[in-house]
Structures are given as structure tokens and as C-alpha cells.
Amino acid sequence: MGWKQKQILKGVLVIFVIAISVVSFWHSGINLGLDLAGGTHVVLEAQDTGTREVDARTMAALNRIIERRVNQLGLSEPRIQRSGDRRLIVELPAVDDPDRAIQVIGRTAQLTFRDTDDNILMTGEHLVDARSEYDQMYRNPVINFQLDSTGAQRFAQITQAMLGEPMQIYLDDEWLYTGTVESVIRDRGQIRGFGSLEEAEEIAMLLREGALPVPLSIEESRTVGPTLGQVSIDQSLRAGALGLLLVGVAMISLYRLPGIIATVTLGIYGMLVVGLLAGLQAVLTLPGIAGLILSIGMAVDANIIIFERIKEELRFGKTLRASVESGFRRAMTAIIDANITTLITALVLAYFTVGTVRGFAVTLIIGIFASMFCALIITRILIDFAYDWKVLKGGHNFVGARR
Amino acid sequence: MDFVGKRKIWYVISVLFIITGILFLGVRGLNLGIDFRGGSLIEFGFEEIITLDEFREVLAQVDLDEEGTVVQPSEQEEIFGILLRTRALTPEESESLTIALRDEFGAVEQLRAETVWPTIGEELTWRAILALVVASLFIIIYLSFRFEPKYAVAALLATLHDALIVIGFFALVFREINTPFVAGLLTIIGYSINDSIVIFDRIRENKKFKRYKNYHELINASIIANLPRSINTSLTTLLCVTAIFLFGGVTIKTFMLTLLVGFIAGTYSSIFIASPFLVTIEEKIPFLRGKEV
């Protein structure tokens, strides 16, 4: 391959990296974590009961029911994921009333029909439908429910035996209503006594989507309101821009022309990271930004190591071309060993931890790959270009390298 | 300049700093936030300025003005906010408080609300510690393979040094710490190892030249050869971190402070602890000495 073809190939590579990153960002955008974008993050843990231990099937059922409930709440883009053996993480984008949403989602919602001595006669497991309505006669909010055939048979027996007696209806431990059984009820019944139609609708939804097989406890909940989410994004962007600007100023004043090259490389690094985050659909959180800051630091450090090495080689009296060549080669081992060690730490962290620390580890891994690629390949290409185009003319371009 | 020859002085300086930190850690401990201890932290944003007493009155209305509850103005820049710290509140309790506040003051926004039950906070800490122990093992293996076991020991010692300095610093200033602190600590650990390895790489390279009288001289020459890089990298990163700490807003202040202290400790330890300690191993700890020199 001739000199010219190599030049073109290198140029194409740089443009390709930039283009891919821009397209990936333009196509998918960056998923911002709830701490930046605003929203609610809830960690729920399944509890064993006397009759049921939490296993994979329980978790799958919980996952399904919670998902239906979240959808019924009309929330856009919820994320529900399993975490460990008995935890579910539910993430909701900005909700008007997060406390309410958490209560609705995490509620067991087991409906029970009881006699006056609190003996449970039947549970809500045979319910096939429940709708909130305004009662025609009294204009009160009610829930009309429907039972399946097994349920209808049992309910008929129960109501037959209890004719004229009061029956209590509970949702979990919350008393809803006590009514006198006036006739034998088969597949259709009504629950009255709600304060508002909203309350009736909420409970009807829970009954419709089914009770949770085991109760859930809330382990952690974090809500960032829309105002603060925006403040966090603004502040992080400002911090990031300020940081990159200062790194650029420092690099250019320390190294002049090579400093400009390093700054351009950092710009490409920034685009590459954004492109990778978008392409991999990674979620960027505040700790994630921490990971990126570390990798930027390592990218800057790599450039400094390379430039210092080139300066040393120049002091030995080598030509610029030869100094660049051996400077890169000598800097390489330090950069690779340092990055691999950090990569090991990041991989272990990503494997062992969850949540925030994991977010840090994942972006750090992405950042390390991007920073190694930029330091070892992009910086090299740009320096070669600067040399070939006679911008980088000689050793005097490296401040302090003159003998 | 003889960095290695004065190593006892450097060790003493470090030990003094670390002991001070440990003293504060033992006497007062760390100001653990809800991520570790459990509890609720709710920040409310109001349209107009209200007093803390007015806020407390509403708290009392919903029976949440308990012992240990802290009410303070929040650090937001453009919004008037009040920060409430309590035991871990159930969503029912937190909802009734918000409703009561809206009844009293009109438009009230929950800027943020964090509730952590103590169990999960403990788990976070243990998982992070476990991960670090495992990561340290892998690093020892990798560095032993690429360098020699004693380099791994020296690098981890420097890392431990930096972590202790940072933890001690936070015990001293008693600033509240949460997960961003953990993220900051992890960043420092990464930075610290990175810093030590760059000098070790120079030692490994210089060793081939065989132009140094002894190990002491080899290490010292390598530190000096690497000084421009150490200074320039530290200058650049510290400038950047200081600026973000000062102007980057409240959200990341604790994180940036962690980095600031850690980067200073990290630069110090890579020059004054990690590399000179190789000589100490050479002279005092024979079983780690290895085949060198």
C-alpha cells in the first residue's frame, strides 16, 4: 500500500468513527437515568408467606402483574426488571403523584369475603372482571365484579348459607364494605362504599389485574421531580463542558500544537462515547458520568504520556518521525497495562454490584475502550497527518524538547 | 533529587494523615446518609418562601414531627426548597404529608424523594466491598504476571493509602456521604492504580538498560523521568476537577470533593509511596523480593 492510500485510509477511519457516532446518537439518543431525567425508581422485594415461598415462578407472576398494573396506570415507557432472586426494580418516568403510584403498584390487593367473625369465606382469585361505575339508584361509586364458573358456584353456596346476614369485604387488611346478603349471588356482584369514583377505579383495576401471589415490601424508592431532573441535566452538561474546555486549555498551553491535537482527539472521544452509549442503549446516570470522567482523565493522561515520551526521544537527538514512532511504542505498554487494570476493576464491579455502582462500572468500561482507541489510534493518525501536511514541522513544536 | 532516600519522611507524613483520619473515624465516624443508614430524604420546592417553623407545624399535623427528624433549607440555586430527613417513610405517610403541605401552601413540588430501608443500604456497602476484594485479587494476578508480585503489593498499598486518606478526610469534615461518595472512591481507586502503573512501567523499561548502580537508583531515576508526566497529568485533572467542584452545581459537589482529595492523595502516593515502597520490599520483606537485581 502506498503512502497516499494509507493516508486516505486513515482519514476515512477517523471520519467513519465520527459519522457512526453521530448517526447512532441521532438515531437512538441517550437514555438518561431517572436521577437525570426525572422519574421514580422503586425496588420491591417479594416476601415468603406461610403457604408460598418465593421462587422463579412467583417472580415471573409478580413481574407480569406489576407490568399490567403499570400499563393500566397509563404510564409511558415503564421499565421493569428482575434483580437477584427476589427483587423487582420498577422505573416510572415522571409521574404526577409518585407516592400514589408506588402504593398502587406494590399493593398485594387480595380481595376477601368474610363473615362477622372475620373468617375468610372466599378470596378474589375467581374474579374475571371488575369495573367501577356510578350506581344507578343511589349515584354512589361502586365496583361491579364478575366471577368465573367455579367462583360462581362457590359464591352461590356461600350467599345461600348467609342469606339475611352481614358479609364483610376486605382488600388486604383494609375494610371496604359490609352489606347484608339479600339474595343468592352467582356470577355477578357489587361492592359499594367508596369515597370517590377514582378510589373505586383504582381498586377495580387492582382486582381486574389480579392479586400478587406474595406480598412485596418496598426496599428503596427514589423520585426525582421534573424540575430537579432538568437542573441536574443542565448542571452536568455545564460541568462536562467546563471540564472539557479546561482540559483543552491546559493541554494547549502545556503542549501547544500537540495539545491542539490532543484536544481534537478528546472531542472525537466525546463523540465516540456518546455514540457508544446511544448504540448500546446504555442508561446514563450521575454515577455513570463519574465513570466517564475517570475515562476522560485516563485519555488525557495517555496523551500526556505519549507527548512526554516523544519529547524524551527528541532530546536523545532522534528525528521527529523516529521520535513519534518510538515515543508511541514506549508509551504503549504503560497505557495498555493501566487501562487493562482499570478494566478488570470495572468488569468485576459490573458483575458484583447493582444499581448505582453498576452504572458507574458500565460507563467506565465503555469509556476505557473509547479512550484507548482514541489515545492509541486517533492521536497517532492526527499526529501523522500534522507531520505529513507540514503543520508539525520539527522538534520545536514540542515545547521543552529542544536540547 | 532523591525521592527514594527520603522515603521514611514520606511514610511518616502519610501515616500521620491516615492516623488523623482514623482517629476522627473512630471518635465520630462517618456522616452516613440514607443510602447506608436507611431513612427518607424529601426535598420540597415552594413557590414562595416559607419558614422552617411553618413547615414543622404541617409536619406535626400529620404526626411526623418525631425525634430525629431534621428540617433544613435546601441548597438549590433558583428554587426555594426545604429538605426533610426522617426515618424511612411509607408511601402513605409521604403522600399524606404532601397533601397537607399543598393544603397549607398551595403549589408544592416534590423536587426529590428518596427512601431507603436499612437492609438494602447495608447490602450496597457489602457488595461494593466484596467487588473490591475480588478486583484486588485479579489486579494482583495481572500485575504479578505483567510485572512482579511486589509491584502488585506496592500498587495496592498506594491504593489503600488513597482510599484511607479520602475516608479519613470525610470523617474529619463530617460531610454527609451517599452513593456518589462510593462512586468517587471507586474512581480514585482506578486513578491511583493507573498512576502507580505508569511509573512501574518506566521502572520495568529502565531495568533493561542496566546502567544503574543499584535498585535504589533505578527506582529514583524512573520516578524522576516520569515527573513531567505526573505533574502535567495532575495539573490538568486537578484544574478540571476543582473547576467542576466550584461551578458544577450541588448535584455533584460531594462526588467532586471526593475526586479532588483522592487525586491529590493519588499523585502523592504514586511518587512518594508506591515506588519507594518497592525499595522497602527489596530491603526489608525478603519473601516478596523476587528475582530482580
Helix content of chain A: 55-70%
> Which stretches of chain A are poorly predicted, pLDDT < 50 over at least 5 residues?
none
Name the shape of chain A in a single word.
rod-shaped
Q: Helix segment count of chain A?
A: 11
Largest interface: A-B, 74 and 76 residues
Largest pleated sheet of chain A: 4 strands, antiparallel
Strand content of chain A: 15-25%
Alpha-carbon distance between the termini of chain B? 22 Å
The count of β-strands of chain A is: 13
| CATH architectural name of the largest domain in chain B | Up-down Bundle
Structural class of chain A: alpha+beta
What's the CATH H-level homologous superfamily of the largest domain in chain B?
A: Multidrug efflux transporter AcrB transmembrane domain
CATH superfamily of the largest domain in chain A: Multidrug efflux transporter AcrB transmembrane domain
Instruction: Round the Cα radius of gyration of chain A to an integer and report it.
Output: 32 Å
How many separate helices of chain B? 9
The strand line-up of the biggest sheet of chain B is 2-3-1-4
Low-confidence stretches of chain B: none
**What is the helix content of chain B?**
55-70%
H/E element string of chain A? HEHEHEEHEEEEHEEEHEHHEHHH
Mean pLDDT across all residues of chain B, rounded?
Answer: 88
The whole-number mean of residue pLDDT values of chain A reads 86
